[in-house]
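From the methods appendix. Each design record in this collection lists the tokenized structure first, followed by the designed amino acid sequence. Records were kept in a plain field format so they could be parsed without special tools. The example shown here is representative of the layout used throughout.

RECORD:
FOLD TOKENS (114 positions):
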């Protein structure tokens, strides 16, 4: 099983980006999917998580600005990020509970700067 993220890049403050993550491999069960982020030298933090039944939780710092969604047919999870701030700059990691095991992608860099 492999998770592949895409959609990171450089954006100005106030701008938007959409991250995508697709799981591939021998998959017969996908439970929770989500996004974490990490700034070098700091702990990795939860950004958003979505369960298989659609229940969602967000970090307080992104509520009202970020939206997580998933496509169960494509085994994909998305993160729409609006009103981006410099503090959102980080490497964003996709994670998923697949076949009762936890998987993490390699990460995609998001840089918010003018």
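DESIGN:
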């Amino acid at each position: 099983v492999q998770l592949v993220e895409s959609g990171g890049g450089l954006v100005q403050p106030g701008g938007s980006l959409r991250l995508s993550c697709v799981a591939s491999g021998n998959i017969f069960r996908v439970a929770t999917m989500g996004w974490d982020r990490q700034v070098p030298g700091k702990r990795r933090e939860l950004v958003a998580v979505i369960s298989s039944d659609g229940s969602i939780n967000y970090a307080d710092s992104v509520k009202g600005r970020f939206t997580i969604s998933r496509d169960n047919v494509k085994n994909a999870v998305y993160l729409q990020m609006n009103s981006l701030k410099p503090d959102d700059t980080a490497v964003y990691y996709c994670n998923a509970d697949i076949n009762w095991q936890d998987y993490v992608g390699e990460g995609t860099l998001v840089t918010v700067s003018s």
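APPENDIX NOTE: The chain has a mean pLDDT of 97.
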